[in-house]
Amino acid sequence: MAALAGRRCLPWVWLRRRPGQGHGRHYRAALCTELKRPLAIEEVAPRPVQPHEVRVDVHFCGVNFADILACRGQYQEMAHLPFTPGMEFSGTVLETGTDVSTVKEGDRVIGVTGLNAMAEECITDQKSLWQVPEKVSLQEAAVLPVSYGTAILALDHRACTQPGETVLVTAAAGATGLAVIDVATNVLQAKVIAAAGSDEKCKLAMKRGAQYSVNYSQGSLKDAVKNLVGSGGVNVAIDMVGGDAFLEALRSLAWEGRIVVLGFAGGNIASIPSNLLLLKNICAMGLYWGRYKQQNFTVFSKSLSSALQYCQQGRIKPHVGATFKLEEVNDAFLHVIQRKSTGKVLLSLK
Ligand SMILES: NC(=O)c1ccc[n+]([C@@H]2O[C@H](COP(=O)([O-])OP(=O)(O)OC[C@H]3O[C@@H](n4cnc5c(N)ncnc54)[C@H](OP(=O)(O)O)[C@@H]3O)[C@@H](O)[C@H]2O)c1
């Protein structure tokens, strides 16, 4: 079953240091030693790289909702304790294994790892790295993997969004939400209705390209969408909140509309009234972006190379809402849990 966001908050801050094993050079890493407890910062002894692996000097690491779920034991994929969370990063190559041919020392890269990225160094398979083009900063690049990879696959690969269509997106001012707005408007030439939980978030979504916005904390999302587009409805809905927000988004769809389930940030998984699918020839589908890495690497890799290319061309503009230091990782988690974050939250390792 898909993961749920729990409601318990972490204490404000709880950091500790303990010496790593071995001697010589060490690097710092965030460590989850116990589920639902604050992360610790530890000194870790580096291990040698395997022939196909690359050691990266991490500059920025994305803080994703999924990292928080993983540290609560509520993510789709359970990690064994203790572990270092962090599924995406940007940085420069420090060292390559003997069989590595795709990158060399000094190259600027982004990586998708699943775990281990919330650290000053990260070792990963060469297949999990993509070169960052010259015009793209490492800070911008760090925003791209999870949020833009997901937005691109949700809108294009799954929902087949067409120019001129209307897209409704929930949690629109969040990391993935703003990426959906950016890709839908600036790449796919669609119109976006942004749905978010405060007027301030709605304002940001409009500033980032949405044509309309709805504050769903103040009434029915479905009624608000109907007021904006009439009874015809929207062509595509991208939902990350679940529960009632999902059901209202489903009921806002037009004939042959498509709804893509991305997550359940609100904590509730809705059941789909299947008669609604029949009545308007609606298609309801899910997207688990990270799973494409195993199931269809070509599609996965293209979502990343497209994001990098759009960014280099200036067609998309990643938005960083807040940056925290590694030792502030628990504050960064709280910022997201308390719904204070907008756009991407990053850890800066430099
Ligand atoms: N399937 C995939 O491959 C995939 C990829 C990326 C993300 N996701 C999922 O998409 C969702 C958003 O991820 P993100 O990284 O973009 O997160 P984010 O930037 O932290 O956005 C989360 C937003 O969810 C909304 N929300 C609604 N109810 C909430 C609650 N009870 N607690 C916390 N937030 C709540 C909030 O926006 P409002 O205040 O505006 O409601 C919040 O800002 C998550 O569920 C994540 O797991 C899935």
From TrEMBL:
**Entry-linked InterPro entries:** ADH-like_C, ADH-like_N, ER, GroES-like_sf, NAD(P)-bd_dom_sf, Zn-ADH-like_protein
Tell me the SMART domains matching this sequence.
PKS_ER
Q: Which CDD domains match?
A: QOR1 (cd08241)
Its Gene Ontology cellular component terms are: mitochondrion
Q: Protein name, please?
A: Quinone oxidoreductase-like protein 2 isoform X1
The species this protein was found in: Dipodomys ordii
Q: Which GO terms describe its molecular function?
A: oxidoreductase activity
Taxonomy of the source species: Eukaryota, Metazoa, Chordata, Craniata, Vertebrata
Q: Which family does this protein fall into? A: Belongs to the zinc-containing alcohol dehydrogenase family. Quinone oxidoreductase subfamily.
